[in-house]
## 1
Amino acid sequence: PAAAVAAALIALPIGAVSLRTGGAYFIMITLAFSQMLYFVTIAFADYGGEDGLSMWSRNTAAIGGLGLDTGDDLVFHWICVALLGLWLGIAHRISGSRYGLVLAAARDDERRLRALGRSPYGLRLAAFVTAAAVAGVAGALNANLIGFVSPTPLAWTTSGELMVMVVLGGAATPAGAVAGAAIMVVLEEMLGRWTEHWAAILGPMLVLAAIFNRGGVTGTFARAWSRIRRRGRP
């Protein structure tokens, strides 16, 4: 919870500034804030600076009074799976709610939404802060997994990698981000075993996927399923 709250509090002023723009300007401003935070964190030498800090043990987890041994890799794995499933369920409910529908309208046609008397700014800021809170939890889990905390994830390259995952999986649904991350990790692992120059192969593959596979993997499956259903109708 502390990681989620901290990430949300940091994201609030960043979103308040960056969401007043759009498109490439929004991307550049958020990347600038990310780089600023990166250089701020490496300046704190007492906390490891650029070298980071090692974690001697994982954080404890207590759910409903039941203590869970996060030092056990299997237990920690299922905690991560449970939290992922919980967030996917929440995201699915949000997308079908009134707020989710208005947020989708802000994405698809901002002018029409403004004409109806609704400002997309507050909606986007709430979504931005919520996403940051989820990212904070994910970061805390990753730190516990590898036993190390460093400012490296604040670099712009991490943002680029996450964007590639979303584009690859499909940005229209929460499941798209999960699918994109899974595909990216599997491709890196498989190509890494084959050659040390795996990035030179993965890059063109991702470019082709972005060009010819609009909507990502989940979008492709959704279109295929729609065709199958239409053919099955009398």
## 2
Amino acid sequence: MYSFTNDYSEGAHERIMEVMLRTNRQQTCGYGEDEVCAEARSLILKHLNHPSDIHFLVGGTQTNFTFISSVLRPHQGVISTEVGHINVHESGAVEATGHKVLVVPSKDGKMTAEAVESCIQAHYNDNSAE
């Protein structure tokens, strides 16, 4: 059985390990500025077929913080399971943007469409101000 608890406690696919071994001794100037990121940026731009800026972020919390704070409107929140990384491990990063993490129950860490719908209805139809 595979466990997807987190990607830090799992191994990598053999092809990924082969590439990592080939490039293990290469020194680069840093994440986002190296040749591999330049190639990735080029491939992404090619597939987007649009002149865009491509920026790489170094971690999940930083990525979630940047995305959520730029996409959600001030009154919106993000839905997570009770065991979701964004709810448990991000130490209030989402709340620091002024948004709320809305928690739904899960089975084995997976939310259902029904749980999401129930969460939306509970917060959308809040009549407590009446």
## 3
Amino acid sequence: MKKNLLAILFIFFFIFSVFGAENPFFFGVTMEGYPITNRKLKTLQNEIGIKPDLIVFFLMWPSKEKINESFNLTYSLETIDKSKAISCITWEPMFLQNSKETTILRDDILKGLYDEYLDEFIFQIKSFNKPVIIRFAHEMNLSRYHWGVVKGNYNEKSPEIYKQMFRYIVDYFKKNQVKNAFFAFCPNVDSVPITSWNKIKNYYPGDKYVDILGLDGYNWGTCASEKNLGWVSSWRSFNKTFKTPYKELRELSLFKPIVIFETASAQKGGDKTQWLYDAIKDAKKLDISALCWFQVDKECNWKITKDQKNILKKQIFNEKYSIKEWIEEIKQ
């Protein structure tokens, strides 16, 4: 009965999103490198041709030995705010040790060994006193991250471990009366490994812990090969990439906003400009609130170039509605 009701509600929501009044749509950019500086933002704006509404950046946790070291998160938040954008911190509970990523164990967090770090982080978020999205431990359904455990222990217990960590962090923020933090639950569109326990729904901490739903997914085109990445990719559209996981998120929560926090298309294997055009069009049809482009030359050259700039200028506009108004309405 519950399943049938959810199906009916989803159909209603889908029809409303397609035929109802058009909601605002925002464009963001996901960046590598920290801290965020004015120079980086100016370079970014020149590359994409518009001012992004949302800036997503990555921040690792410290090792236990470095918990007491000072850090200046406020500088990046204020720099982004001056550009009229909202900050999204991809908050990664891991650190680099001898250039190798080391995951922070669930037990270390739950036993309070990182509370001192959380206190300083929270102090800076509260002092900033403007909305900040926190994307804690993203892409939890990828073995590449294995949040909370060593890689060999990424298994059927991982979803529960993840939920415990997520809830601990959110509860800690609530205990400290943080009003301007918005928590995002952001799986990858593809689960690795593909098993019954490693499904998106198994990781969901619950509506009371999540403000925004998110997804990460890429069109790798023909960029990946056995030789360079150990696997072979093929061209896939935005719809093919996101439609199924989008439905999975909507089954978890019908009305929470959905943001694509990371996406991009490779150049090889198809028409990248057309892919971007279709991505924005299809995201709007699905009533996705924002799409963030991974503006980095990495495994593939994901960057928006001159060929795609005009698409953004023609399709992205919110003359009567700002992203700051949008985010303030989420918790109302």
